[in-house]
Amino acid sequence: MKHVLWLCSVALLVAGCGQPLTASPPPTVPAPQPVAEGFSRSAMLDDIANLVILPAYEQFTERTATLQEAARTLSDAPTAANLQATRQAWREAVLAWQPLRLFILDDIRRTLLHSGVNKWPTNTEFIEQFIAEEATLDAALIAGAGSTSKGVPALEYLLFSPTGDDAAVLAALTNDPRRMQYVVALTQDLHTTALALQEAWTQPDEGYVIEFVSNDSGGAMMQSSVSELSNELVNALEMLVQTRLGEPLGRANGGEPQPALVEAPYSDASVPAMLSLLHGFRATFTGGTGQGFDDYLDNLGVQAEAGPLSVRIVEQIDRTIAALEAIEQPLQVAVVEQPEQVTAAYDEARALLVLVKVDMAGALGVTLTFGDTDGD
Question: Domains of the chain, with CATH numbers?
Fold first, then answer.
């Protein structure tokens, strides 16, 4: 199983299209509900921010710093061992990014910082044009490049081979200095972006975390943190179901598998990345070791068909994780050779989406808005 080692990394990260949705039975408590004495939305948001969100940003910054250093080492000494070390650093950065996809809230989205991190599919034609031209390939050039020409997808294209020919990758990087320069510049830009995103949340007296915690109105207020974060949780699940699993399965193409539509196909990173997202989703929903949406729902007394909705959602998150872990091959292979395993994961993820999009959002009085599901 090619992604077994990845799953260990995923578990450590967060110490943290298709058919129409069929709604599950509605929550038994009308929405919105008043918060009972003893529960504080502000305290819940504070726990989510300080126990989940900020550590995730810190980890992404650390992982991109490691990746940048690995790329510089590879440039200085282009050996097979250093290529593998850079690839591993890339994998760790990819995993660290996944939970952050849940936290691109309105004020953060308006910075546009996230747009160049993981916009896929990458535009390989543009990348090759940049390499073929004479302009200096440095972080400044990358900063001005389009989002599909940089970030982790562009690095994957340059560091991995679709045929598994590692020698060819190393030869291309060694024989064309501009190709190596592009790799180094990409990692520099990625780390700079990570630092800027972290600062947007943590800058003293101006960081978004202050607004996030204080904006503790109920879900009925569209600009409240409860509403915004709920929308991002739904958006991430919709993308997981429709784009990251549904499209490769052929759910938008009459059932014909589309392996070319898999995210991160060269590195076999698709399943580990989705697992990292779901572990981040679980940590966000539960507030890590503090209070989360599960406590909020329990405080409101929201029941599902067979008990508390909070318990049902956590169980379904774990069922979805287990179904993804059961996929034995890289996703682009599995959708063709073992589609039943991918379909099982798709079905579990879809069930989780219903619980969050219909039941939880309804119980919290959240108005769902159109989300960005074309990658980030």
Answer: 4-364 (1.20.1420.20)
